[in-house]
Amino acid sequence: MVQGIERGVYVVDKIQFNQVIEEFIKVNNLMTHIQKRPIRITNDLKLSTSMIHLIDVIGNYPETSITELADRLGVTKGAVSQQIPTLEKMNLISISQKKGNKKTKLVSLTKYGRKVYESHNYLHEELYSSINEALESFSPDQISTIKQILEKVSYTINEYQVSLTRKED
Predict the structure, then answer these.
(1) Residue 46 within a domain
(2) Residue 56 contacts by C-beta under 8 Å, 6 or more apart in sequence?
(3) Domains in the chain: how many in total?
(4) What are the strands, taking DSSP E only, across 51-123?
(5) Which of 87, 96, 114, 157 could disulfide-link 92, Cβ–Cβ 3.0 to 4.6 Å?
(6) Tens digits of per-residue pLDDT, 140-149?
(7) Are the CB atoms for 75 and 63 separated by under 8 Å?
(8) What residues make up the domain containing 95?
(9) Is the pLDDT reported for residue 114 higher than 60?
(10) Whole-model pTM above 0.85?
(11) Axis crossing angle, helix 49-60 with helix 66-73, rounded to the nearest 10
(12) Model confidence over 20-58: pLDDT tens digits?
């Protein structure tokens, strides 16, 4: 159930709600399209967007477990685990064991992985700068509200997906 909606009873104006949903779907479609296209990092290195985002999270949180990476990305452990061997073969990441826990693998960037991470951040600077400029017209309270809305939408979509998965079992 979408938060704020109870069996067709809309807390917000239905037209406004539909407009918000349409904009969300546009953003989602753009992100999906971007995720499918490989990005050239160097002349001899192309990576999928999902791999680049994984490298980004590893760069932001060194020596992180696969479970933590999956949580931060909002994907399954399996989705992260499938990419780990490829990134390791490309010498972008290294794997170590957590001290006192042989089951938990910790993932870190190699020197080469750090260069890819920095290149990715450079590529995003222009995009993030544009988004930041667009957000400058909003107050800190409004930006906080936007963040809360996105968190609630994300949570609701995740709960909906979980409920669909349960129905399939």
Answers:
(1) yes
(2) 117, 120, 121
(3) 1
(4) 64-65, 93-98, 101-109
(5) 87
(6) 999 999 999 9
(7) no
(8) 39-125
(9) yes
(10) no
(11) 120
(12) 889 989 998 988 887 778 888 888 888 988 899 999 999
